[in-house]
Amino acid sequence: MHAKRNSWSETFPLLGQQNRLQSLPTRLPSSVVGMTSATDAVIPPRPVFLGVNAGTASAHAGIFDESGKLLGSSSSPIQIWRDGNCIEQSSTDIWHAVCAAVRLACSKANVSGEEVKGLGFAATCSLVAVDADGSPVTVSWSGDSRRNVIVWMDHRAVEQAERINSSNSPVLQYCGGSLSPEMQPPKLLWVKENLPDTWSMVFRWMDLSDWLSYRATDEDTRSLCTIVCKWNYLGHAHMSQYNEKDSRNMEACGWDDDFWEEIGLRDLVDGHHAKIGRSVAFPGHPLGSGLTPEAAKEMGLVAGIPVGISLIDAHAGGVGVMESIPVQGSNSKEFDKETILHRMALVCGTSTCHMAVSRDKLFIPGVWGPFWSAMVPEYWLTEGGQSATGALLDHLIQNHVASPHLSNCAASQNVSVFDILNKLLESLMVDLKSPFLAALTEDIHILPDFHGNRSPISDPKAKGVIHGLTLDTSEQELAVLYLATVQAIAYGTRHIVEHCNSHGHKISTLLASGGLSKNSLFIQEHADITGCPIILPRERESVLLGAAILGAVAARKYSTLQEAMKALNAAGQVIYPSTNPKVKVYHDAKYRIFRELYEQQLSHRSIMAQALS
Fold first, then answer.
1. Domains and CATH numbers, the chain
2. What are phi and psi of 64, to 5 degrees?
3. Which residues form the Carbohydrate kinase FGGY N-terminal domain (predicted)?
4. Cα–Cα distance between 498 and 501 in angstroms, integer?
5. Per residue in 316-331, pLDDT tens?
6. Which residues lie below 8 Å from residue 540, measured CB to CB, with a gap of 6+?
């Protein structure tokens, strides 16, 4: 039993959020809409599934039918506070954004709450702090109680991560050999050392997607995905339990108590790990009695709807695409058995996550994992990543002097800034008689580690580099800078793929989803640079589909997560690498420079360290 929580509807919302939860129209019976015949007067309800994702900047919701087709989606912004390396949000604000997005998605899909048969949550791997009543506890220097979420990209705990890594605990071999400051143990240690009042008040520390499930069901069971990938939980302790016929909550037997004691967080072991998770379950496992009456009212849904154990957003994106079969491969039986082992899912948004699975555990230095059953049940997950991709493109574009004019042009044409830049590049290629578009960047080289390097170097202190700047501030110069940045991000993906393949993977195909996957230039450059074909999903909202799949499994529509993936994943367009051999030669040369930029940075870092010693 948990302690009784205060009513969440009584929690005062952030400024500007008071009107988010107003009722929205639901689907009207046909008899109300207009005249009907005797044969169509009764419209049977459509079983649909709801996926929710709390991203970095906004909450998203999508309604999917039984074939995995998106019927309607919506989003609602999330407030964020930035102060140097400290980046914070409010769980109250996130919940209001989620509810607003769900209501509007149902309205756009013309779906009533009664038709939603299952619900799943995905979210960034941000850290939530609440007290015994479920109320927010500040994690901020400001003391603002609303700011109770340390955002995934927060890098306040770099020093704590270095100390933890110096322990050389055996646990670290299951996260590439070292912890990132983006993981939860360093952040927890930072709070303990810097905010003692907060540390004493917190009753539950939760990953954001687990908190959303808890908020919706009042059931505190953690996802094997979140605690394995971000909390150093050893999920393979549950290997013998996956095949049990009756899916149930499992006692959290994968915590390594020695690890927590070694890093100075012994108090989290107390109470059978009550603050960080006493009970765990596989993604898609139904939580408690489903959606609570209070949460159902706030979302405009029906109490008791099955809610599946959650996934991290990137992992939900993997679940939404990994079993996508192009039309030409739809009749191949061999596809079902082995193809998933040759694939890597790229979930491209603010950051990019690189997800690959294997039957055997593969220890890859600098790459997170191997994580057992953290995405696809009974497979070991390898998780690479780049901490700033969409965020980097936004940063470089928005801070360029030509940006305001381009933004106005995009707004007047009702297109994205990326569309404007892509057209500029096509014109430049013609005007400059460039042999191919990529060659426009021959004089500019970028190392995209503006927020450190997550994989495969695992260096949070790495810095971004732009080599080849001039005094030119034109729109054309910005377009070339943008292209060089896209290429640098793709070189980072190539580095990750090559590194994984050199340690046992056999990746030959990429599957891309997320906001950046809608940018044709971004995808084509990735195909050309990695040499891999890229499968785009039929439904571009793959994270939402992955979350909805959790709801479908919780509702017993499918017996396993992978069965649901095979039924609901669907491929769209396939993008192939350029057949021009000169393009490959060009990118091979630029990739060599890309790798040298980091080596030069290490040399420069050493020179300056010696000078200051």
1. 48-320 (3.30.420.40)
2. -125, 145
3. 49-320
4. 5
5. 999 999 999 987 655 5
6. 513, 517, 518, 572
